[in-house]
Amino acid sequence: MTTIAQPGITGNVLFYSKPEPLSPEMHGKLGVQRMDGPFGFARAGHAVPLTVGEFPLAAVTGPIIFVGDDKMPIAVMGLNAGENMFLRADGLFEPGAYIPAYIRRYPFVFANDDASKQMVLCIDRAAEFIVEGGDMPFFEGTEPSAYTKGCIEFCNNFEIERQRTMSFIQLLKDLDLFETKTANFTPVNADGTAGEPQQIAEYFGVSEEKLNKLPADKLVEIRDNGALAQIYAHLLSLVGWDRLVAVALTRANQVPVAANS
Questions:
Q1: CA atoms of 98 and 100, how far apart (whole Å)
Q2: DSSP letter (8 states) at residue 15
Q3: φ and ψ at residue 239, rounded to 5 degrees
């Protein structure tokens, strides 16, 4: 494991407000304290990064969409910025909700070090469950503890999946499968009639029309390399907009007439 106790870490990462390179000098007495509800930090995570291998599991919880110029995949977990609809007040997720690996790896994260031009393992020192004498110490003497070694392995696997995700996105770009999509719903007026349709999101997604027009050999190729299954997981996940809208309106004591993506 590489440990660097010096400045130079760059980049803004969702949930991580005070990343520090993990080292026995700075964190030798610290560890993670077990909590009944450890996911409170993700309360503002209405849109959480996702890796392609997670698509089938994440699809049952909510929409999987692509955003930005890089078309990075995210799990939509709320309709409003800063509101994770699947996270309860007690810091636990609703039963059955998929918890993205991005959340499960917290408080660990790899970051770029400007000085060494390498990735270094960091922790978010602002995490509420990082305390002195925690149940799961980061170090045993100057060596990483068994807990930390397990977390390093998790982060390494996450990085491998992130690279695989980038290759998947490049494949979709090369095949020109992306298109702009919108998610809409129709509210109910006080008299019970349908109101004006409202747009709740605009994002990138795979075009079914373009997918169906691919040459047969390309379809076989993406079927055999596993990409086609991930594409269908993404497409099927888009019905999750209905679920998000229904939950939001139920909480507001309303019932939607229709929701579609």
A1: 6
A2: T
A3: -65, -15
Q: Which two tokens stand for residue 86?
A: 């699947």
C-alpha–C-alpha distance, residues 47 and 197, integer Å: 23
R_g over Cα of the chain: 21
Beta-sheet strand order (sheet of 30-32): 130-132, 30-32, 136-137
Which residue in 126, 105, 166 sits closest to 30, CA to CA? 126
DSSP string computed for 169-195: HHHHHHTT-EEEEEEEEE-B-TTS-B-
Provide CB contacts within 8 A for 20, sequence distance 6+: 9, 26, 27, 122, 123, 124, 125
Cα distances (Å, whole numbers) of residue 219 to 167, 212, 226, 230, 236 = 17, 9, 11, 13, 18
pTM (two decimals):
0.86
SS3 category, 122: strand
CA distance 102 to 53: 12
pLDDT tens-digit map of 166-217: 999 999 999 999 999 999 887 777 776 777 888 889 999 999 999 999 999 9
